[in-house]
Amino acid sequence: MKFGLFLVLLLSFVSFMSAQRPEIDEKLEQDLSSIIEGFNGDAGVYVYNLKTGKEAAINADTIFPTASIVKVPILIGVFDKIDKGQLYLTDSLLYNKERAYGGSGLMQFYRDSTQTDLRTLSALMITFSDNTTSLWNQELAGGGEEINRLMEELGLRYTRVNSRTEGRKKDWEEYGWGQTTPREMASLLVKMRKRELISPASSDEMYRMMSNSFYTDYALSQIPPYVQTAAKQGMVNDSRSELVMVNAPNGDYVFYIATKNNKDQSWNYDNEAWQLQRRISAFLWNYFEPQSDWSPAEKAKEILGNIKY
């Protein structure tokens, strides 16, 4: 009797775990493996089709630097405070020049003592990947410590803010501002799309912000301009990554492309990691939308190729 009961419980557990795990799209996984083969660095890809429930995963549980994609967990941390009534998008804030931080973004060029608000901070952080507003948002969200506790509550084991966060110096030295895995970061965007992140209203507003990316010349360049996407890019010298949700006609799909230890650390259009992102994005669009008459413009390079980053 005891053995029989144990067997029933074991089978029930296996059945439950199987039900929680998405079905693998083996063909897609093989095709993606072929695409990233030979990449001069470490690459990971996670793809999930929300309509079919199928996934493809290559190094999807490997930890990669987030670079600016850490701004997605920061955004979630801000909206958690908003949901609790501790912050409001209409909160008035005063910018001062001591907050200026270089790199990407616009607020570093604001005049000292400019009046702004939380909505502007959040929108600039996501749309233009503004570093000054991102650090300010991290502070308003309670710092990396509180954001990391929230990530843990959401069931994420590896997605963390490292910079300016107590106890994470070694992680910061290895991964920079933040760290994640392709599967974990994609799961946040899936929850957001399903209106399950913080609250339905919070999910909707965060998704609106993520649907206005300024950086359209990487993976987004391979998706028709009339199809809505939600995205965030992250880039430093030896790591280029991208998170994208595509609201495609045949069903939504999400993908996360992560790279690290990249040999090509250039900032030209033809950077190897950026070529990989475009290639994977174009492949996924044609894979999930085979009847589409859209194909990425052959002359895209003529338009964008001479841009110096």
UniProtKB/TrEMBL annotation:
Reactions this protein catalyses: a beta-lactam + H2O = a substituted beta-amino acid
InterPro entries, per database record: Beta-lactam/transpept-like (IPR012338), Beta-lactam_cat (IPR045155), Beta-lactam_class-A (IPR000871)
UniProt domain Beta-lactamase class A catalytic: residue ranges: 44-259
A GO MF label: hydrolase activity
Gene3D superfamilies: DD-peptidase/beta-lactamase superfamily (3.40.710.10)
Annotated keywords: Hydrolase, Signal
The organism's place on the tree of life at top rank: Bacteria
Signal peptide as annotated in the record: 1-19
Pfam families with a match to the protein in the record: Beta-lactamase2
Protein name: Serine hydrolase
